[in-house]
Amino acid sequence: MLSGLAVAGALTALLAGIAGAWSPCGFSVIETIGTALGDARRSVTVLATATFTVGALAGGALTFGGLALLGGLLGGGAAGVRDALAGALALAAAFADWRGWRIAPQIRRQVPERWRWIMPLPLASSLYGVLLGLGFTTFVLSFAVWALAAISFAAGNAAVGAAIGLAFGLGRALPVLWIAPRLGTAAGDRALERLALEPRMWLGMRRLDALGLGACAAVLGTSSALAATIAGATDPSVYRSALAWQRVGGSGMLRTPSGTRRLPGTLPAVGGFNRAWLTAGGIVVSLRRQPPQTFPLPPNAQVDALAISGSWLVVRDQAADGIENLFGISLAARGQRRYIAGAGTPGAIGRPAIEGAYVAYSFSTPQGSWIFEMNLDNDVRRVLRSAARNVQFTNPALDAGRLLYEQTDRCAQELLLGSPYSAAPGRVLLSLPSTVLRDPGWQPGYQHAWNGASLCKGRAAGPGETTTLGATALGATDAYVSESPPDLAATRIVTVPLGASAARTLSPAP
To answer: Which domain holds residue 432?
Structure first.
């Protein structure tokens, strides 16, 4: 599912690409493809039109997708500043396009004419498509192109950048697709003539661009603004439009499009259209279109975490002697259970998450830290993340082939979005300094002999952060994470939009 920023940016980019048809390069390409070979070899003209389209799509994806990847390398720490700057630039560009101001800065360069003489037309056309799709290698016909570059960079999300780039490339290709194959006919010649003699059409496209840029600015402003928080809330759980959380010292809460309500229990979880929560009498599971069922509590153990999908309920409990167990219960056959993990050290097994039959959980000991995934249907287990020392992985969440998790080391606490199919480092969505105290590496009053504190980007010696990241949840367009200050009653849930990579917080619960 595309985010609001991706949709608004793609629509704006499509219009910006079409507006490029009024450039010298736009007219040149249409005439080159449509008339260079004449009617005798019209099939070659059609092929050249197709290769131009492929080139334009590739060029757009390369420019705007590349800018988004570059923005993602900066991580989440500067995202709010980037969003604010990109939103301001989008509004300025919208005003300039609406007024029809002359484009500045302008790139006064055309596609190389000689290519059409020294290359086969389809090959030359593909290269022309790449140049026009890149956006900044020839004449720029709207301020929206510059603004979309800034928006892609601010998004820091390859999906957003690719959507904008592909839409821009398609916009550059549409006038060529529409007119070039028909040149030499009355309809084709009339279309080209109208394109050349109606500058008001160009102004109209720029004004439509301005409306799209306004929508992009609105999305950026919403994602980067810090709204009120869900105070005293932790342990988020999300499935589609349903969001559940635990009130600190209180009951569970559930928010759906129809409103927010208090649940008759604690530790709420949602997944696969099902809901679960803990009561004194057992674990209540509310299945889709079925009466709620109550699962008995494990004997002589205290349940402290739940997760649910369309087919499985996952329970973490702790016995009086501190032994922890993690197990799954089939919702189709309550007698079918799967043992997942156990530990003799309290806190070794992290809060579980489940999608379908796949359970993700962290496991940490003095010897290392891991994130495991287990398929409850066949008991196959694999390692998603691992570290031997100085790094702790916690609070994984799964959704649609994505893995959300936290990584903590001596320097930082980071919320990352990666893949369960690759061990490559995830994209940083949110970062806080580590809670670790960093001494200066030498004792005051004595010669320090060139010793110093271990290097941490952006951190000097001294006390660490007092706020810690906690439980997470992953939705289609947003990640959720709880933040706990020293006063646990002030724990809150923060929402990180995946499209803009900027942290914001949820509205207060009623």
So the answer is: 230-438+453-505
